[in-house]
Amino acid sequence: MRGPSRLRLNRRSLLVVPAAFLFALFATIAAVSQDIPIPPLHGAEQPMELTPAPPFPRWVVDDQRKMRAYPEQPPVIPHSIEGYQLSVNANRCLSCHRREFTEASGAPMISVTHYIDRNGQMLGDVSPRRYFCTACHVPQADTEPLIPNIFRDMSEMGARPAGSE
């Protein structure tokens, strides 16, 4: 029994690539024809024009936990981390958030998922792949959003928990 011929696979790929290109082209034309404003997310109007750098944002430092914007979002850091050392040899975040230091510091303990390695084994210390906190957690800045957010939570749309009827 013979497998599919090379010629058939090549013909199939020759049809898929132009179809994908045409779809992207028509989607772009449709967006432009509807006059959807595309926000400028770049710098100066004229390339190579010198413009002053925007000021550094003010960090929110009220130490209040923020509501998460979506399920499974890593919590934001509600305090300044300027000057924190975060390297292979030192992690200042762990001096307050590690399991054994939370009672004295009053800081929330890092999730138990941070103590599990990639094979699902529980470790005695923070997993190396979870060691660099700022890969997922960011400090909250007091800035305007680049684009408007029209996200609505399911509860705002009238969704009710199962069995609540």
Question: Could you explain the architecture of this structure?
Answer:
Helix content is 22%, strand content 0%. The protein is extended and about 60 Å long. The longest helix is centred in the N-terminal third of the chain and has 28 residues, at 6-33. It contains three helices and no strands. By secondary structure, the chain is mainly α.
User: What's the number of extended β-strand segments?
Assistant: 0
- Which descriptor suits the 3D outline? extended
Order of helices and strands: HHH
Give the CA-CA distance, first to last residue: 58 Å
Structural class: mainly alpha
State the gist of this model.
This protein is an all-alpha fold and 165 residues long. It has helices spanning 6-33, 94-97, 102-105. The radius of gyration is 25 Å and the shape is extended.
Which properties best describe this structure?
extended, single chain, mainly alpha, 165 residues
